[in-house]
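In response to a reviewer's request, we include the raw inputs and outputs for one of the modeled complexes. The two entities were modeled together in a single run.
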Amino acid sequence: MVKKSIKNENHVFLIILMTLGVFASAQNQKVSINLKDATVLDVLDQIRQQTGLRFIYNEDKINNLDPINVNVKNEEVVKVLTSIFKETQLTCLFKDNVIVLMNKNYDPRKMEQETEHIVKGKVTDEKGNPLPGVTILIKGTSSGVATDVEGKYSIRLYNDKAELVFSFIGMVSQTIIYKGQTLLNVTLKTDTKKIDEVVVTGYQTISKERVTGSYKTISSSKVKEVPTINILERLEGTVSGVNFDSKNNTISIRGTNSYSKTQPLIVVDGFPMPQEGFQFNEGKRFQGGADLSYLNPDDIESITILKDAAASSIWGSRAANGVIVIKTKRGKNNTEPIVSFSSSWSRSDKPYLGKLKQMNTSQYIDFEKELFELGFLTDNITDWTKSNLSEAQEWMFKVKRGTATESECNAALEEMSSRDNLGQIKKYLLRNATSKQYSLSVSGGSDKSSYFISGNYNNDNPVMKGNNSDSYSFTANNTIRLFKNAVTLRTGINYTSSKYNVNNTVNEALSTVSKSGLRPYDMIVDETGQGIDKYLLFRPEVIQDFENKGYLPWTYNYIDELNYSNLVLKSNAVRLNAELSSDITDWLNVSASGMYYKPNREQSNLNEEDSYTTRNMLNTATYYDDLDNSLTYGIPLGAYYTLGSSMNESKSLRGQININKRILEDHSINMALITEIREEKYSSYGKNYYGYDEDTNSGKTVNPTEYYKTVYGWEEYIGSSNNSITKYRHRYLSYVANGAYSFKNRYFVSGSIRFDDYNMLGASRKDRAIPLWSAGLRWKVLDEPFIKVPEFLSKLDVRITYGKGGSSPVGGLGNNNAVINLSTDYYTDLPTAGISTPANSKLKWEITKTLNFGIDFGFLNDRIGGSLEYYTKKSYDILTNMPYNPTYGYPYLRYNSGTLSGHGVDFDLSVKLIKGEFNWTSNFNLSYNTNKVTHSNYEASTLNEFMSGYLIKGKSLSSIYAYRWAGLDSQGQSQIYGVNGEIIGSDVNSTNIDIKSLKYMGTTTAPYFGGFSNSFSWKNFELNTRITYSFGHVFRKPMLKYYPQYKGTHYGAIGKNREISTRWQKSGDEEITNVPGLANINFNSYSRYNNADINILPADHIRLQQVSLAYNVPLGWLNKKLIKNLSVSFSARNLGILWRKNNQGYDPQYLSTENYGTLTPSRSYTISLNASF
Amino acid sequence: MKTIKIQYIKLLLLVLSISACRSYVDVEPIGNERELIYTSDYRALANNYSNLENGWSYPLLSSDDVEFSESFQAKVSDIWSRIYTWNNYFFDEGNQDSDWSNLYRTIYYSNAITDGVMGSKSGTETEKEEIMAEAKVHRAFAYLTLVNMYAPHYNPETASLDKAVPLKLTSDLYVKLNRVSVDAIYTQIISDLKDALPELPQLPEFNVLPSQAAVYALLARTYLYMGNYTEALTYAKDALELQNLLNDLNQFSSNPFGYPAKLDNPEIIFSKLAMNYYKGAPLSSDLLGLLKENDLRYDVYTTPGSSFYPTHEGRSFAIGYYSYTNGINVGPSVPEMMLIKAECQARLNDSIGAILTLNKLRSKRFDNSSDYEIVLGENESALDYVLRERRIELLGRGFRWFDLKRLNMESGREVTITRTFNSKIYTLLPNSELYVYPIFKDYIKKNPELGE
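The model returned the following structure tokens for the whole complex.
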């Protein structure tokens, strides 16, 4: 407060100074006054009498002033007046012999004669580099100029009392009062917080100082810090309360309100994106597959996250899980064109396959041997239709058949044990991932219009060979002022096009389940480097026999397959938006806007005739007739081509009335009334072409219902289940009212209400829509005059919001009518329908009520700043698919099943630890979120439900339970502890186990998570580090997969998990292992081991995501006329885990189980270049 | 002039901004998903045979039609072994009793139709009545199957006391699931079938859809199980009046894959399927021994066990295997009607009629060149012949299980089944409680009234 008053004094003093120079005569007069408890009018009257000076004032304003004491002798008038009006909203202006009393923010220019002055100067940054394109505006007018390439400007002033505003993106704006200077050089300071100062809700842009709700903004510079194609990776760990999971491509804001994890609503340039047609990263089929982005990260101006009840009351039912508002860049008025170019090149290490934790070759052979000896495997020699045995199994059965001796077999197995295909996998199937990004933009503007145009290209080649993606995007955002600036037209055009190639060969080769999955001794190429032809479907002699009869080659070759069967996903999306807005009066603005968004996706999969898929399909459909040695083809020879396409179309129209009125001095009202309609359409179709000829682009006609004979002898149809067209049309209507009222600029009250209606299936009109609302309050504590502020405190605002949000059931409510899904029956051609949502009279909306407290604080002149928020949420009538009694017709049913209460804390802290030539800034955020089921219509009642995360009253949603492990018995089978510590063997049926014997293990969602980033700068260098962490949760260790669960033949894949090698094999092993042995295996034993407490480990870990070093090339080195700014940065990503709580080497975020897809992304290195011209 | 233009634009913006109204969203969403409103929607529901075609499956394993060799015992799943040994539970926690849930799914669909079809929009009364009738026939079949699986066999003396299954006649998802008596279920079956009869076509467009023939056939089956042979005979004849074509197995014995697929099979009156999961069980030597040398049913109805998983050395029921569009039909068929007719004839002392009926069936089942005709001797009654023929003709599909249940109630026809499984001996005594399949405990946990 002390500081504040000083500032005010300066302000007044400046104005006084300014006036002094011009009207020296008035100032010279001196007065002597001695009055006690006098009104200001009395004082003025005294002055008038003593000097003859006259006053012009608004009587109301003068009368409102408190009585004052004045005791001066022979004092200058100006000083007297200054001290009188110091603490008031008034100031005085000397004009000849008249003194005008007016509001301090009153623009005196209007009263002045126009005299022309020219001010010239140069604008530089802190380092002395000239800044081109800085806007210099005369405050209160729309006229201004911009600096040239050398940072120079020249501006004409028609007034003696002008204020010049110097502004530039990313810099702190400076206002300088013209004091008659002819040369005015200005240094602008970099401002990283600049973007934070407004909050973009999508409907409005509100000053951050006024909002009551919980919003967090991610600036474009934060988005730019991480050079990945996937935007989610760029956002990981940046904001408290938000979990960006780039592995699963999901975002969750403040945990969950519901049992199903739905995504937040994404709003781009003011319009919500359709759920199916817009994701940050689309198309990615599996980890290790290519990345694709539908949004050019360089186009992003800001990302605002709306976290609390205000979000849903502004954006409606789809916003129950938070809203992410993205604003793209626009040009600035009166700016010289700026061309920016940025590009980055990344390369990653090949993945470390050891993390798969698989058995080595000899362990795997040992496992196969034991399976063989214990009779889990069956020979296939007598049945030609059986698939080919593994190499090791073949040898073992040879001995059994009598076609090889024991020693031959042993020698062969010995030789196989010496092989290891990991080297070949690395060499032939994997590669160093690379990605490239280029982006170019031009922006600028005149006083009537501005533009931002950008283009972008991404190319991604992930570690698995045969996969890659390319994407392009183009954006043009224009703003034009029409009709003498009465109407503003904003338009936006965005086009993205992408192509994504998928080849599954590598993914399949590394999988355990796939027929082409590699066992540890299966090699890919022979000694000469030639790809080995593998026999998969049948035994070699069977396949050779077929080939001799004229069948197509029926072997599989990894190296060849990398070139075949490419699935190509192509998509393009057009987004157009336009807004016309006009000020009806100075406080009333109306606007009409619209958006059209049309993403199209096309999926084509060409399986060449030579591809295994096609050869296998054709051969299977070929019948050999013994009698005349003829082959009959059920499917025409040639390639197999499938084509699928889907289209979304989203159209929105909105009308908005904005009211922005200041009433008297202290009250201001800010309102927006909005009506909006939106239509979302979707359609998709698919088609298959058989006997496709790539040259003529034509397929052969087939009769899908004609029987043909397969190689096995039975009959089959070709069929075509994808000749149907899927369609929907959703329409939405919304009314929204947002209001904010502020009093004395220190109390802010806000409220909003929204009414959403849409053509929801199966719901009656009254159930389709419910009003959602929120209300909030903000108090700027430090501005309160009665509060004494400690010196170190620079900011303290308190906020609170409360509101009701809700989400309508996805896919229809069905409380009025059942919802059905129509199609045509494949065999009878009759129209047929299934019930997709049964009529359920008791279905209601899910409702979430959220209470949010927030404190925004700043210490030591805002060197330490941040916010702390606490929220509680209560969700009612949560809809979920829960196990139901199938006697009602449904084993699972969606219904309003319970009440969930949750609470959490979001904490953000930013500290400028060191300031000066060397800067060190730390940003830390912590999120805590937990929930508890407080009531449930359906509660877990069976062991299985307890262990697989169903609702358990009093526990959080993702709780898991486990058996208390009691070691293996002497037969190598699982034992667990019962309620009273008694040992339960695997022969005891699960139905006889008391649920109370289970142990609560914790939750699988991290209650604590966040990020920690540090930024160091010195001269032209900047070093950034980003760390993410999560604590307090547990995970279930990868289980014994593809391990026999019963005695008898083991079907399907054989597991490769390293844990299998430690299995119980002989009596006594129970002392050293917990993995149940094969000899007496049974389902209870298997599943109890997998669900035992020993296999649930703490998931707490800290991860170093990125370290990057940037260098701003000093412009002195370069031709300043050509390049204005150039920076180079180097970053290393996915640097691994810094600390983990589990001591078994598991990465809880990337549990590598039986397939490659779950491997932690390998380290990658990126070089980026940014330049502007 | 220009200012006027600006004023117009401003006015236009103002109008635009307040012009949305609720009728905008009062449209039906186009596309495949929609509300169940129109009669044509109900028609489509009634055509959805994949949800309505559910039959039974566990009887395929529990009757003495099957026998697991020692080596086969080691290969079967726990579920198979529990059904095979008449365990007091079949499914582990967290699984589903699939026959129960499938049949109640059929009942849900039927009830959804009977609840709403009469009030549906833009259909004629005749259409509505027909759809309603079809739903009732599906429901009757489901209850007839449920009552025979999960309740003691119909006994006129105790039927009103014997607990059966819950009788759900609406699609309401919140009613109590109290079980009703065997008698109540049978009463409902008969009333549903008789209500449906006049509204249906004599024969269906596809055998997955109900027809008058299906109703007669189901009534015949129902009355047979109730021991009302007079009624059973009447309805079996009525059914055969409408549909009586038989496949001549001579056409297929050398190429069994040519056996007609389900929808083309003239013998099937009303298709209902067992689950594929239960196919391929080894047929007992006892059963196979009944098949005489020239009986083509051996070649067409059975196939080597190597065609199934798990494989075995013996033979299994084959028809489901010829084309996977087939399934294992447990719905009424022409041969079943002939066998009911013959059985009732025999029981009603028309031995000659019974043998004639049997011979008519056998004429399509034996090698053309062989002597297929039965000549009634002294040692065996016509009923003996009929029951043996019934066991052969309906082999491998679980009919035997229900026959055992009813035959055990007749003195002199009781059967005790003994089987060894993993060196343990299991015995199923006549009229044992184990003939009633256990109600899955998970379901009782969810709705305790079900256990009462």
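As requested, we also summarize the result in words. The CA atoms of residues 776 and 801 of chain A lie 4 Å apart. The two ends of chain A are 45 Å apart (CA to CA).
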